[in-house]
Amino acid sequence: MSSNRFGQQGYEQQQQAPRRRGLFGNVRWWILLLFAGYAAFSWFGSKETDPYTGESAHYGATPEEESQLGAQAYQQVLGDAQAQQALLPPNDPTSQQIRQIAQRLVARVPQVAADLAALHQQPTPDLSSYQWDVNVIQSEEANAFCLPGGKIAVYTGLIPIAKNADAMAVVMGHEIAHALQRHGAQRMAQQKLVQMGQMAAGVAGVDQSTMSALGAGVQYGLVLPYGRSHESQADEVGLMLAAAACYNPEEAIPLWERMSELGGGARPPEFASTHPDPANRIQHLQQLMPQAKQFYQKYCSQGAAAGATGAK
């Protein structure tokens, strides 16, 4: 009798236990739900409107924090270049030419920022955190960048690809646009979201194969498309900036045709890249050309040269 009683009691507990756990009795689900709530709060709490495009944007740092990080990274780049004797002096002819282009572009930043913000019915962006600077680095690399806060570097390997000042202005305008649109701070917000997801999955005990699948989904479904979107936005704003600085925006088309031939034209498919496919990029630039010509007409129709200084 006794053994049957205990045996029956144990059997009933085994039958009832799964029903008591349910969805909310599972610690893993609690962790994931709490993460989802916090992630949504953090992501949507940082939502603003990009005045340059009118699109929604999320920022993971203030303009001042972003500029400080950019200045620190810039000093590291210049220090490495100087150590390798690759930093061109300001009086070098190549350096002077690049600086002149930068000066014209920077001089038009306030007007273009105001024009684009008005177009999207947004307040004029605050540009007070930008301390513009430009340097040229001797290197075979065909590249240029503009760090947060306005720190510009151009590698001499880009010069034979650009071929002329108009195309170089298009490239430099593109890089300046990344800084103006604060794409660095937007990437920081995205990285925070991804890291939170990884931490939640790890604490919840998600197995390795599932983690790998989730990682691939995030990479191809979030990170890479985000990068391609930033590139397209920088193409748009940068083209308007180059045109307003009285450079020929039509040079953007042959420029990106030449850029597409680098490395023998070999590249991953667009879905696996942070950059748009060259053909799609050129098509987008062609669509933007009428607007760019309007900027050129507005600021350059009477031969007005944007010669004001702004970059060191």
Structural summary, described in words:
By secondary structure, the chain is mainly α. A hairpin with a 6-residue loop joins β1 (47-49) and β2. It has ten helices and five strands. The strands form two sheets. Strands 3-5-4 form a three-stranded mixed beta sheet, with helices on both faces. A two-stranded antiparallel sheet has the order 1-2. The protein has one domain. Mean pLDDT is 81; it is low at 304-312.
Task: Kindly summarize this structure in a few lines.
Helix content is 63%, strand content 6%.
> Roughly what fraction of the amino acids lie in strands?
5-15%
Largest sheet: 3 strands, mixed
> Helix fraction?
55-70%
Give the SSE order as H and E letters: HHEEHHEEEHHHHHH
Mean pLDDT: 81
Radius of gyration: 26 Å
The count of DSSP E runs of length 2 or more, i.e. the number of strands, is 5
Structural class: mainly alpha
Distance between termini? 95 Å
Shape: globular
Total discrete domains: 1
Q: Which residues sit in consecutive blocks of at least 5 with pLDDT less than 50?
A: 304-312
Numbering strands along the chain, what is their spatial order in the largest sheet?
A: 3-5-4
Number of helices: 10
Task: Please give a handful of descriptors for the protein shown.
single chain, about 300 residues, mainly alpha, 3-stranded mixed β-sheet, two-stranded antiparallel sheet, about 65% helix, disordered C terminus
Topology of this protein?
Blueprint: H1 2-21, H2 27-45, E1 47-49, E2 56-58, H3 63-83, H4 93-119, E3 133-137, E4 144-147, E5 151-155, H5 159-162, H6 165-180, H7 183-203, H8 208-244, H9 252-260, H10 278-300
Parallel strand pairs: 3-5
Antiparallel strand pairs: 1-2, 4-5
Helix pairs in contact: 2-7, 4-6, 4-8, 6-8, 7-8, 8-10, 9-10
